[in-house]
Design goal:
- There is one protein chain.
- By secondary structure, the protein is mostly helical.
- The chain contains eight helices and no strands.
- It has two domains: 113 residues; 74 residues, no CATH class.
- Helix 1 packs across helix 8.
């Protein structure tokens, strides 16, 4: 007996009412992932080259040049905006620099994490909705079995097959949403670590430069 393959549209029709909220979840999940991917590609999170150049200029006692370099790179490098915020208030001392760096970094992190909560919510709601659809489908399947005059293996398997479709779709959507969240969260965590490291080194370098001037 040949095994018949089914299209997604046919599977969608067999899944019942639960497929509609799952469709909404899938569209939302893919839209969020694509939007975050584009955002992170447009705002380069790598800070290594900016940090190296800024430290070189500070060591040459060219703080103005370091600020200008950050400002010229900030359209393509998100971390450059954070560093620039700290350098602008370098004349006000260490505490003010650290506060400026922390405040601007927090703002940029919020920008990067926009939509993360929705990914987590979709990752939780999609399988629950799928399970609910399966339970509903199982109830209908067993009701059909109870009302059938002639119960056979094909009737039982067919009802269970249709009921489990929503669980499969719900788990697939949750997998995509949670995977997307974890991948993006990894890049954000790396960005945070890089900004903290660069900020600390730049603040120290500026303080040493200012102290050497006084000597």
């Amino acid at each position: 007996m040949e095994q018949q393959s089914m299209t997604l549209i046919e599977l969608f029709g067999l899944g019942g009412w639960a497929m509609w909220p799952l469709l909404v979840f899938s569209i939302a999940a893919f839209s969020l992932i694509i939007e975050r991917l584009i955002f992170m590609l447009l705002h380069n999170l790598d800070l290594s080259d900016v940090k190296t150049t800024v430290l070189e200029k500070i060591n040459q006692k060219d703080i103005k040049g370091a600020l200008e370099h950050c400002e010229s790179a900030q359209d393509k490098k998100l971390g450059a905006k954070v560093i620039a915020a700290g350098i602008r208030v370098a004349h006000l001392g260490e505490h003010r620099m650290e506060k400026a760096l922390a405040a601007d970094a927090a703002e940029k992190i919020n920008m990067l994490e926009r939509g993360f909560n929705f990914m987590v919510a979709i990752g939780s709601l999609a399988p629950i909705t799928g399970f609910l659809g399966t339970v509903s489908g199982m109830i209908s399947a067993f009701q059909s079995i109870a009302n059938a005059a002639d119960v056979n293996a094909q009737l039982v398997a067919g009802g269970i097959f249709e009921a489990l479709i929503t669980t499969a779709f719900g788990l697939a959507i949750a997998l995509v949403a949670i995977a997307g969240y974890n991948i993006f969260a990894h890049f954000v965590d790396k960005f945070i670590a890089d900004v903290e490291d660069a900020g600390s080194e730049i603040v120290t370098s500026i303080l040493l430069t200012e102290n050497n001037k006084q000597l």
